[in-house]
Specification:
With about 425 residues, this protein is an alpha+beta fold. It folds into 2 domains: about 240 residues, FAD/NAD(P)-binding domain (3-Layer(bba) Sandwich); about 160 residues, no CATH class. The protein contains 15 helices and 21 strands. The strands form 5 sheets. Strands 1, 2, 6, 7, 8, 9 and 21 form a 7-stranded mixed sheet that branches. A 7-stranded antiparallel sheet has the order 16-15-12-13-14-11-17. Helix 2 runs antiparallel to helix 6, helix 3 runs antiparallel to helix 4 and helix 4 crosses helix 15.
């Protein structure tokens, strides 16, 4: 059997960075990838543009992951923050740009450029890459680790597992690492889809497929909750997300819906939910009602549809009028007070039935994974098995859309490569 200082399993974002860093430190490093292509998720992320990170600092990234996960990521982010990620790609010849909202993309809008840069960094480091080499098992033996593959076995002083979770299984992320970690004594937090589109049977949503609303606030509410007062203010805030929304033939997509999907998949009520949509979250119900009343006084002959369509996509505006039972040719002077009330409700509190998410097949990341309590956040080393490291999506770490998950992968991968 060949012997290595470090074997990295999985050539995704975390694995490529981990192997590169380990080799840069002079460690004889082998990177194993079961697919023909490396970084399959990199190539398809961000609509094939690859959202590398977010334009914030380490604290901002940690905050996006919440208290528990953010605390775990603190050391990794302190060592390799968003600026360091951008600098790494700049040094590799990949120019970047920051889009409104803070998303950082390659200036070329090409995920292929990102993948090629990571592979070139790996080559330059001296690490050896073996594609189409599926790993079948990892076990400890006599102070070394034995990594079994469909070909020859290999041994190493340290193993870094970066095989991802279960999202986009077509990319090869089929949950292989969970079985290895569990066999080595680790607890696995049950994996579930996160950042997944939501399914709805609402006919009007399907009819408006392709409509994008740039700023929507969504509250996911259990179907058996008959009134908002049934939940506390904190509970409602925890299941509320805001961002762009895309209406599709199957339901809801875009950042607002996908960021909210984890709320749904984390509960046993996944078959009976409602998405309460506020299509103008920047304005309160009271202020919207006042604007409608003022328009009725000052612009009586103007059509209500025209006024709404200046604020929302016209097809959606027409649907909201229909929900409020207001004819599309109704002028403000003809708008009754009751109709104004119904229109405000339609704009601010439209209820869309949700039957569930589209699952792992369409989820961008996996929630759950290796229990963070059993991993040393200062090194990414297992607390149960010295010489075993974890990085990336196999960990119980999942953040919102916006480059946060790639940042976590790069940071934990870098720290594992630095420590192994």
């Amino acid at each position: 059997m060949e012997h290595w200082d470090v074997i990295v399993v999985g050539a995704g974002a975390a694995g490529l960075v981990a192997a590169t860093r380990a080799a840069e430190r002079g460690r004889r490093t082998l990177l194993l990838e079961k697919n023909r292509k490396c970084g399959a998720k990199i190539l398809m992320s961000g609509g094939t543009r690859c959202n590398l990170t977010h334009a914030t600092d380490a604290a901002g990234i940690a905050a996006a992951f919440g208290r528990r996960q953010g605390a775990f990521l603190r050391s990794a982010l302190a060592a390799f923050d968003p600026d360091a990620v951008v600098e790494m790609f700049h040094a590799a010849g990949v120019a970047t740009k920051v889009e409104p909202g803070g998303k950082v993309f390659p200036a070329s809008d090409s995920a292929v450029e990102v993948q090629r840069a990571l592979l070139e960094m790996l080559r330059t480091s001296g690490a050896q890459l073996r594609r189409e080499t599926p790993v079948t098992g990892i076990r400890a033996d006599g102070g070394y680790w034995i990594v079994s593959t469909t070909g020859d076995d290999a041994t190493a002083a340290a193993v870094i597992v970066t095989v991802g979770g279960q999202s986009y299984p077509g990319c090869g992320t089929t949950g292989d690492g969970y079985g290895w970690a569990k066999a080595l004594g680790h607890k696995i937090i049950p994996p579930r889809p996160a950042l997944a589109p939501l399914a709805s049977s609402a006919r009007w949503v399907a009819e408006l497929r392709g409509v994008t609303v740039p700023d929507v606030q969504i509250e996911l509410r259990p179907g058996d909750e008959t009134a908002p007062v049934a939940a506390t203010k904190r509970q409602r805030a925890e299941r509320t997300r805001r961002g762009s929304l895309l209406l599709t033939h199957f339901g809801l997509s875009g950042p607002a819906a996908m960021n909210a999907s984890g709320v749904l998949t984390a509960t046993p009520h996944a078959g009976a939910w409602q998405a309460i949509c506020d299509f103008l979250p920047a304005i309160s119900e009271e202020a919207l009602a006042a604007e409608l009343a003022a328009a009725a006084r000052n612009s009586g002959r103007r059509q209500v549809l025209t006024w709404i369509a200046e604020r929302l996509p016209r097809r959606l505006a027409t649907e909201l009028l229909a929900q409020a039972q207001i004819p599309p040719d109704r002028a403000f002077a003809e708008l009754a007070r009751r109709e104004r009330t119904e229109l405000v409700a339609a704009v601010k509190r439209t209820c869309i039935p949700i039957s569930g998410s589209l699952g792992f097949k369409k989820a961008e990341v996996t929630a759950g994974g290796v229990d963070l309590a059993e991993v040393d956040s200062r090194t990414m080393q297992s607390k149960l098995a010295p010489g075993l490291f974890f990085a990336g999506e196999i960990l119980d770490v999942d953040g919102p859309i916006g480059g946060y998950n790639f940042q976590a992968a790069f940071s934990t991968g870098r720290l594992a490569g630095e420590s192994a």
